[in-house]
Write a structure and sequence with these properties.
Elements (H helix, E strand, L loop, with lengths): L10 E6 L5 E2 L14 E5 L43 E3 L1 H7 L3 E6 L9 H14 L4 E5 L3 H13 L2 E7 L4 H9 L3 E5 L3 H10 L5 E3 L8 H5 L1 H9 L7 E5 L4 H16 L8 E7 L4 H7 L27 H10 L3 E5 L1 H15 L5 H16 L7 E6 L11
Parallel strand pairs: 5-13, 6-7, 6-9, 7-8, 10-11, 10-13, 11-12
Antiparallel strand pairs: 1-2, 1-3, 4-5
Length: 391
């Protein structure tokens, strides 16, 4: 028997990100026939929920229950993910001459990264649709998160990761009971191997190749708005590999505008990549709407940024253009320096991806792209404690 649903979902249907074609919301779906992500849509105008209604709800991402795609509460698989803190960085703000510099610290999610959000949602919906085995190619954190949430749900996780992945990520998956395969090369090689090994009872939860990881990631956008008393920062700086988080935050802002909970203008979105793997930056500089596959991506201490071919490239670039944002790269040297600078000045040990954001912000301020009166938010996507072997 279903548990009582106090907050009923407004989930309506899935639609192709390119064509707008509608897909059945309650059967297993991957991506559209146009080889584009499927986006969850909601009957937002039917909501009777107000921001005040959130005050008494649990401090997890599930507080936005109406705007998430799970039909029945009994299928929710949770470890307490979401509602991560906003931490001011006043000393570094003063160094750059910025009015406000804040980091949203996703390292405090249950599996040590923002991947907890996406995989909690994907596993919950897969469970609701009758899936028993989920498979994923991963650079590290996503595999650990899938393994944890599958363990929580009593499901099987199949993980493919590069053979150069640091040992902590390998052991994390194995402790959670996942079946782990190590593949020479990058996450793209892992995806190819997964495809070659495919079994009919597996469900692929690769980035944006199913619709629901995005819905978990979008809760970052809802939280940013709520934690700011429904006032948004001027600029959000985001480390961009697969880009689901950036796309999700932008999707959340569009939904909140439709709900009438926020007003424009929306933040300018900034995508940050490494010099050795920068397909989104290259496409942005060319004013392209799609990115080319990056050939032979260089090794990096930021595992999550070594993504040569983002499935959601069109959506990432769309968010950058619509927000009047930008994209830029940082070097390996800058990331290493950035880790120490933020740690010694603010007491925050950011993952390499997060440290890249600090260096990118400093570069944008030096270029004059950031004004001194602007409020800037960095999204630290993971815990540096999981990257110690890298550095």
């Amino acid at each position: 028997m279903e548990t009582l649903q106090i907050h009923k979902t407004l989930y309506a249907h899935l639609e192709c990100a390119k064509s707008g074609e509608v897909y059945n919301p309650d059967t297993i779906q991957t991506y559209s026939r146009h080889h584009q992500p499927l986006l969850a849509r909601y009957h937002l105008k039917d909501t009777q929920t107000t921001p005040d209604d959130l005050r008494q709800r649990p401090l997890t991402m599930w507080r936005y229950r109406e705007f998430l795609p799970i039909r029945s509460d009994r299928h929710i698989v949770s470890l307490g993910e979401g509602m991560t803190p906003l931490v001011p960085m006043p000393r570094l703000a003063e160094r750059l001459g910025l009015a406000d510099l804040t980091v949203k610290d996703e390292a405090l999610n249950p599996t040590g990264s923002f991947k907890s959000r996406g995989l909690a949602m994907a596993v919950s919906k897969a469970r609701e649709l009758g899936v028993e085995t989920c498979a994923i190619p991963t650079a590290g954190n996503a595999g650990g998160a899938l393994a944890a949430y599958c363990a929580r749900a009593g499901m099987q996780a199949i993980v493919y990761m590069p053979d150069a992945t640091p040992d902590i990520f390998r052991k994390e998956c194995q402790f959670f009971g996942a079946r782990v395969h190590f593949v020479p090369g990058t996450i793209a090689d892992c995806a190819a191997r997964l495809k070659a090994d495919w079994q009919d009872d597996w469900f692929d939860v690769s980035t944006l190749k199913e619709p629901f990881r995005l819905e978990g990631k979008k809760t970052m956008g809802y939280e940013i708005a709520e934690q700011g008393n429904w006032q948004l920062p001027d600029v959000i700086v985001y480390p961009t590999g697969g880009g689901t988080g950036l796309i999700g935050i932008w999707k959340a802002f569009q939904e909140l505008l439709e709900l009438g909970w926020i007003k424009g203008p929306l933040p300018r979105m900034v995508a940050v990549q490494t010099e050795g793997c920068d397909p989104i930056v290259a496409a942005f500089r060319q004013k392209a709407t799609q990115a080319r596959v990056h050939p032979d991506p260089a090794p990096t201490i930021a595992n999550g940024l070594r993504v040569p071919n983002a499935f959601g490239d069109m959506l990432i670039l769309k968010a950058l253009y619509e927000s009047q944002g930008t994209a830029l790269t940082v070097s390996e040297k800058d990331m290493r320096e950035g880790i120490g600078e933020v740690a010694s000045k603010e007491g925050l040990l950011l993952a390499p991806e997060g440290a890249a954001l600090w260096k990118a912000t400093a570069a944008l301020r030096a270029q004059g792209w950031l004004r001194p009166d602007e409020r800037v938010m960095l999204i630290n996507t993971g815990s540096m404690y999981k990257y110690m072997e890298n550095v």
